[in-house]
Amino acid sequence: MAGVVRRGLKNILSQNADDVVILSSLRTPITRANKGGLKDAYPEELLAAVLKATLAANPNLDPARIQDVGIGVVLSELGGSKAGRMAMNHAGYPSSTAFYTVNRACASGLSAITSVAHSIATRMIDVGIGGGMESMTRNYGSRAIPTVLWPALRTSPVKDARDCIMPMGLTSDNVAERYGVSRAEQDEFAARSHQRAFRAQREGLFDREIVRVRTRFQERDKQGNEVGEERTITVSQDDGIRANASVEGMEKLKPAFKADGSSTAGNSSQVSDGAGATLLMRRSTATELGLASSIIGKWAGTQVAGCAPDEMGIGPTLAIPKLLDFVGLSTEEVGIWEINEAFASQAIYSLRKLGLERALSEGRVNPKGGAIALGHPLGATGARMVATLLPELERQGLQTGVVSMCIGTGMGMAGLFVRE
């Protein structure tokens, strides 16, 4: 592994036979839970769509050469493992391809991509797919808090143990209060996310990363009653982006989690449905298979760090410095930062702590918006972010990018990717 993860910008940008390279990184549209175009789709249905599209995007790759598929998922029954493997076979992959799921909450997608990269780096496999899937419409009934739990944990004398099931919105308000992030700053940040995402969507900047999904759709009224007949639709774009988002509109929203809080439905990430998949292999394997010209980037390292559960949103402030130290880069040597907008409070604090406020103003942090505008389908978010990062690196003519997010129960994760 040490030989694969290189230190220093020159070495990171060099091309070596044992690099873990990326040939495609795709995602479905991200749509609003309970309201959006994918609300009636199953998470494994979304996974099947993006896995099938991965084969279509790589027509010269025999599916039998793909040895393992790792998928991040948080909410699905049985961890999504059985339905996910069924979807993989349904999409055209042989039974010789192995399958597993990963759950590291909000970082599940990035964890899955990293796990597959590690398998390639250690020569356990040569070719694999990492990604994520989630239907929060179908599986968010408990709000991601366990309904069956050892009672001793709920009354544990260890505060951090009790705080692992604190609602995420309260952790957001904690960050705002402890680190001086104002409501006005949060509303401005949220409006900017929507404005950037709307502009990117209007200019077609998401088109290369998005896989169209043909699925069923049943309209329902506010009481949940069916309206009209079920119909078949094709979903081709994210539908949580608000074209008319403004600070003034954000200011009108009431606190969502406690009466005197500053986190609202507008300056928090959306509850969403979606899936994503990234195809990885060793560079020498790509060369052997005649696929070297299809390489679009490479994985260059990942790090994870823990923090207090009641302020889980600060995770990126710990994981990113750990990653930069691991790969021997300075902040200035990173071209684009994709930092998940779980809540505006924690995103703002993270950028402030990391010294990335100028990069935000220059359009190098979440240049096409983030989870406040696009949505946060828990298990799929990391995969979505990688799929969004790589085309943007090319568009801006930059080479290095970091994907990072906070993680429920108190963690942060960050991964480095390179465009080729």
Task: Give me the secondary-structure topology.
Elements: H1 9-13, E1 20-27, E2 31-32, H2 43-57, E3 68-72, H3 81-90, E4 98-102, H4 108-121, E5 127-135, H5 136-139, H6 151-154, H7 159-163, H8 168-179, H9 183-202, E6 213-217, E7 231-235, H10 247-251, E8 272-282, H11 283-288, E9 297-306, H12 315-327, E10 336-339, H13 344-354, H14 357-361, H15 371-374, H16 381-396, E11 400-407, E12 411-419
Parallel strand pairs: 3-4, 3-5, 10-11
Antiparallel strand pairs: 1-8, 1-9, 2-8, 5-8, 6-7, 9-12, 11-12
Helix pairs in contact: 2-3, 4-16, 8-13, 12-13
Report on this model:
This protein is an alpha+beta fold. It contains 16 helices and twelve strands. The chain has helices at 9-13, 43-57, 81-90, 108-121, 136-139, 151-154, 159-163, 168-179, 183-202, 247-251, 283-288, 315-327, 344-354, 357-361, 371-374, 381-396, and strands at residues 20-27, 31-32, 68-72, 98-102, 127-135, 213-217, 231-235, 272-282, 297-306, 336-339, 400-407, 411-419. The strands form two sheets. Strands 1, 2, 3, 4, 5, 8, 9, 10, 11 and 12 form a ten-stranded mixed sheet that branches. A two-stranded antiparallel sheet has the order 6-7. Strand 11 (400-407) and strand 12 (411-419) form a beta hairpin.
